[in-house]
Amino acid sequence: MGVDLLDQALTFLGAAGLGTALGLVYDLFRILRRRVRLPLLGSALDLLFWALVTAGLFLYAIAAGGGQLRIYMVLALFLGAVVYFLALSRPALFLAGLVADGIAFLWSSAHFPWSCWGMSVKKLKKLQRSTSIMAEDGIILN
Q1: DSSP three-state, residue 4
Q2: According to DSSP H, which parts of 36-139 are helical?
Q3: pLDDT (tens digit, 0 to 9) for every residue of the chain, 142 residues total?
Q4: Which of 46, 67, 118, 136 gives the lowest tally of CB atoms within 10 Å of its CB?
């Protein structure tokens, strides 16, 4: 049984493509982490990212490597991520930032009437409390 160089080259390119895709996922998680301020979101996204890397490499090794993880697959994954960060990260971050801004605008536009209504109710309650006089028995006199 011989070594097929073309199969290894295609496996190498596929692993590099997987590394590029994982670089994009990392950038999307980075935008989510910067825009959404939750205490444990960063840790949860880190855990999810590394779970995706592990699952992606495992499934790729099963599909393309015949169930064997080769060192060149890991190197190609790393090389694909490096190429992504050097060549594609800035444009991807710019476009993803525009999409995130659009989503934030749509969210605030949809949320605006509810927030105005909530502020109005608070102001009316505060106005009612400031203009009401309480009698000794708890009856409100205006």
Answers
A1: coil
A2: 41-64, 71-83, 89-131
A3: 566 899 999 999 999 999 999 999 999 999 999 998 899 999 999 999 999 999 999 999 999 988 899 999 999 999 999 999 999 999 999 999 999 999 988 988 887 777 777 777 777 777 777 766 555 555 655 5
A4: 136
Note whether 29 and 91 are within 8 A (CB).
no
What is the distance between the alpha carbons of residues 90 and 127, in angstroms, rounded to a whole number?
A: 51
Distance (Å, whole) CA 65 – CA 17: 15
Residues in the chain: 142
Q: CA 131, CA 9: separation in Å to the nearest integer?
A: 80
> Cα separation of 132 and 108, whole Å?
35
Closest CA to 96 of 47, 29, 40: 29
Give me the torsion for CA of 51, 9, 65, 26, rounded to 10°. 10
Going from the C-alpha of 59 to that of each of 38, 43, 54, 56, 62, the distances in angstroms are: 31, 24, 9, 5, 5
